[in-house]
Design a protein that fits this description.
Length: 149
């Protein structure tokens, strides 16, 4: 019986979806199955990486159910996957940015006992620093070869 291919679920701010797609390709070459947010795929297909074009709920609050559905969809991927990889680049002047939504995704992985890989270090000035470290993530310092499943 062949070993099962492990699935890594990428979690990321929508601002980093371009980078997440690059990382997806690298991980597939390393033999992993990779799952990313559906909006990242839409961005790739359209070539449009302008986040505001997808977050329509800011312009139309009636679209918040779309946000909720996307969250549920990605959360299910986390539950079904073997590990998560948080892609955290610089945003809002903060290196290693992790926002509220990604923090929630990390909490789901933590609750399910999944390994949590974080691409870049998180500053101790992050408002979620204590919670992030409390989940025992594995910091990769940009080196995807450190992922072991």
């Amino acid at each position: 019986m062949e070993p099962r291919i492990k699935t890594i679920v990428i979690c990321s701010s929508a601002s980093f979806y371009g980078r997440a797609l690059e990382i997806e390709e690298e991980l597939v070459k390393k033999g992993f199955r990779v799952s990313i947010p559906s909006t990242a795929y839409k961005m790739k297909q359209s070539g449009d990486f302008e986040v505001d074009h997808y977050k329509t709920w800011f312009r139309n609050p009636d679209d918040y159910p779309v946000k909720a559905e996307r969250m549920r969809e990605h959360n299910n991927k986390i539950v079904e996957g073997d590990a998560i990889l948080v892609v955290n680049e610089e945003k809002k002047g903060m290196p290693g940015y992790i926002g509220g939504n990604v923090l929630m995704e990390m909490a789901i992985a933590f609750h399910c006992g999944k390994p949590i890989y974080v691409l870049n270090p998180v500053l101790d000035s992050s408002p979620f620093y204590e919670e992030i470290l409390g989940m025992g993530p594995i910091f990769l310092f940009g080196d995807l070869t450190k992922i072991v499943l």
